[in-house]
Amino acid sequence: MLKLTFLGHACFLLEDNAHKVVIDPFLSGNPVAKTSPGDLKADFILLTHGHGDHLGDAIEIAKKNDATIISNFELAYFCSQKGVKKTAGLHIGGGSSFPFGSLKLTIAHHGSTLGNELAYGGNPVGFIVRMGGKTVYHSGDTGLFLDMKLIGELDKIDVALLPIGGYFTMDVNDAARAVDFLRPRKVVPMHYSTFDLIKADPNDFARKTKHYGAECIILKPGESHTLE
Fold first, then answer.
1. CA–CA distance, 222 with 219 (Å, rounded to integer)
2. Are the CB atoms for 14 and 226 separated by under 8 Å?
3. Sign of dihedral through CA atoms 204, 208, 108, 183?
4. What one-character-per-residue DSSP string does 51-100 give?
5. 34 with 26: CB under 8 angstroms?
6. How confident is the model at residue 186 (pLDDT cuts 50, 70, 90)?
7. Which pLDDT does position 103 carry in this prediction?
8. CA-based radius of gyration for the chain
């Protein structure tokens, strides 16, 4: 069993009976977030890339919880230089076992610069997370790419977490095509309507994905779904 909680934008909390894994904890400054960084408990924090709306409050949360930050090598090193004691810097195609299960990094077509000086934050990534007997694909910020077909074939995804907001990432139409490529059992839309630039209709996405046989789960910030 795996409990999936949407915390807003691209942030999710994954929980089994023993571990809490947070992905892209952008909470402070997030107009739709219902959870504050100080209230969030985490054992591991996964970061898809270095943009502020994904790196977010990761460093603060990691220090408060003695959590391990996992990301691409460069971003993990950046976090360690900011005082995070536990980090794991992997890279695309690589993976490892962790106490919660296992993790593999995938490609994502986006950027990953850090802060106002646009410092290098390594390559953006997606994550294949195996936890609680389930397989979760968090695509990170990305455009549509054909290798999603290969990801779906190799990893047999239980739930895919996909951006639909357009402008910076896939829009509703491209994300629906991603569902066709990935063939997950379920899909959860993310990275939409946090700001005006990325307004999108998740119900339109649900209608388009129904054709591909995936159950679309629309979650509001703070809502959860359990994968049995």
1. 8
2. no
3. positive
4. SHHHHTTHHHHHHHHTPEEEEEHHHHHHHHHTT-SEEEEE-TT-EEEETT
5. no
6. very high
7. 97
8. 16
Mean pLDDT across 143-148: 98
- Per the CB < 8 A criterion, the answer to whether 104 and 94 are in contact is yes
**Structure-block tokens of residue 116:** 């106002």
Report how far residue 143's alpha carbon sits from residue 63's, in angstroms, rounded to the nearest whole number: 32
Average pLDDT, the chain: 97
Q: Where are the beta strands (DSSP E) in 132-208?
A: 134-138, 159-163, 186-190
C-alpha span between 220 and 135 (Å, rounded): 22
Structure tokens at 62: 């990691």
Report, as an integer, the average pLDDT of 72-90.
97
Give me the residues paired with residue 128 across strands: 104, 137
pLDDT at position 154 over 80: yes
Q: CATH number of 2-218: 3.60.15.10, 3.10.350.10, 3.40.50.620, 3.30.450.40?
A: 3.60.15.10
Answer for the pair 199, 172: CB distance below 8 angstroms, yes or no: no
Q: Does residue 159 contact residue 133 with C-beta atoms inside 8 Å?
A: no
The mean pLDDT value for 24-53 works out to 97
Nearest to 101 by CA among 44, 141, 23: 44
Report how far residue 25's alpha carbon sits from residue 69's, in angstroms, rounded to the nearest whole number: 11
Q: Do residues 9 and 194 touch, judged by C-beta distance below 8 A? A: yes
CA–CA distances in Å: residue 121 to residues 26, 28, 108, 157:
17, 21, 14, 28
